[in-house]
């Protein structure tokens, strides 16, 4: 099942599977989301929940009991229900069930709300704790922006002037090694060497948005004011780049395994809800 929403300038299509955005086109029929060719990467824009990144040994503990979770959690591989739809918006919901409780012992509802507004697609995450205890979780986005021209024709422009320090991954875990992106007037030219060691993980950023430039002109802007962390990723020779606003990231090698003590984790009180929003703007 797929759902399409539209306004006068954009059309967005979302799968019920994973509530995953797989197409965003302008009224010239130009596609801005990666097609999902499995030769490079078979996803388009998965939601990362209830963890972001990789756990040490894919394992964590709650009250000293061990649980297993794959990289980026399970929500992206589950069927969501379409609960509301208008011409330019759609709401998808995933509720905990017997299958999720084996991997993650908390009752929850996860909603993804897609809304088109002028040349912008807003994507809102709502997490509701329906458990009888506090609930630790992370959540993140993973939209892959299609780059139809040569990769080197693109650049990133960060909103603010700041030291763009990122952590390197080692065996999919966050290491203490850091590097800093070199910029000229907040602009970073793209090349595949940047991603030789997998994703660039920015634990914190002052910038609330990042604009992809195509031949020095604005192409797509991703705004992530609500999110403290950001991942940027592509695969060698792939014609896309992922701009990933995150709450949380992979474990460190010396992580204790206790999910409540995991670096970057969010803790949601009983019957409370969490809201965050990011947007993809065609510029």
How would the blueprint of this fold be written?
Blueprint lengths: L1 E5 L3 E6 L5 E6 L32 E4 L2 E4 L12 E5 L3 E7 L2 H6 L4 E10 L2 E10 L5 E3 L1 E2 L3 E3 L7 E5 L5 E7 L2 E9 L5 E3 L10 E3 L6 E6 L2 E7 L5 E5 L6 E8 L18 E3 L4 E10 L1
Antiparallel strand pairs: 1-2, 2-3, 4-5, 6-7, 7-8, 8-9, 9-23, 10-22, 11-21, 12-21, 13-16, 13-18, 14-15, 17-20, 18-19, 19-23, 20-21
Number of strands: 23
Strand content: over 45%
Number of helices: 1
Structural class label: mainly beta
Low-confidence stretches: none
Keywords: Calcium
Protein name: Aldose 1-epimerase family protein
Cofactor: Ca(2+)
InterPro entries: Aldose_1/G6P_1-epimerase, Gal_mutarotase_sf_dom, GH-type_carb-bd, LacX
Short description:
This protein has one helix spanning 98-103; strands spanning 2-6, 10-15, 21-26, 59-62, 65-68, 81-85, 89-95, 108-117, 120-129, 135-137, 139-140, 144-146, 154-158, 164-170, 173-181, 187-189, 200-202, 209-214, 217-223, 229-233, 240-247, 266-268, 273-282. With 283 residues, the protein is an all-beta fold.
Features:
single chain, 283 residues, mainly beta, nine-stranded antiparallel sheet, five-stranded antiparallel sheet
Structure description:
Its cofactor is Ca(2+). Monomer. Pfam families: Aldose_epim. By secondary structure, this protein is mostly beta strands. It is about 0% helix and about 45% strand. A hairpin with a 2-residue loop joins β8 and β9. The longest helix is centred in the middle third of the chain and has 6 residues, at about 100-105.
């Amino acid at each position: 099942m797929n759902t399409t929403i539209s306004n006068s300038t954009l059309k967005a299509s979302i799968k019920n599977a994973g509530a995953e955005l797989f197409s965003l086109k302008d009224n010239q029929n130009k596609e801005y989301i990666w097609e999902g060719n499995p030769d490079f990467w078979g996803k388009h824009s998965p939601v990362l929940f209830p963890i972001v990144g990789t756990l040490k040994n894919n394992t964590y503990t709650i009250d000293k009991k061990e649980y297993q979770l794959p990289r980026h959690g399970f929500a992206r591989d589950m069927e969501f229900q379409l609960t509301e739809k208008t011409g330019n918006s759609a709401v998808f919901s995933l509720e905990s069930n017997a299958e999720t409780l084996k991997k993650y012992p908390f009752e929850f509802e996860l909603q993804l709300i897609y809304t088109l507004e002028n040349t912008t697609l807003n994507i809102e995450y709502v997490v509701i704790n329906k458990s009888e205890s506090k609930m630790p979780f992370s959540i993140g986005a993973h939209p892959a922006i299609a780059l139809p021209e040569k990769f080197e024709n693109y650049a990133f422009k960060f909103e603010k002037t700041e030291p763009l320090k990122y952590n390197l991954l080692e065996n999919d875990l966050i290491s203490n090694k850091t590097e800093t992106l070199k910029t000229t007037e907040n602009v970073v030219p793209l090349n595949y060497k940047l991603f030789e060691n997998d994703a660039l993980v920015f634990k914190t950023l002052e910038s609330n948005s990042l604009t992809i430039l195509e031949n020095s002109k604005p192409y797509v802007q991703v705004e992530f004011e609500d999110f403290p962390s950001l991942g940027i990723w592509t695969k060698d020779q792939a014609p896309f780049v992922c701009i990933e606003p995150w709450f949380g990231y992979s474990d460190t090698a010396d992580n204790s395994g206790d999910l409540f003590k995991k670096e970057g984790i969010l803790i949601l009180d009983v019957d409370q809800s969490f809201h965050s929003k990011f947007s993809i703007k065609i510029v």
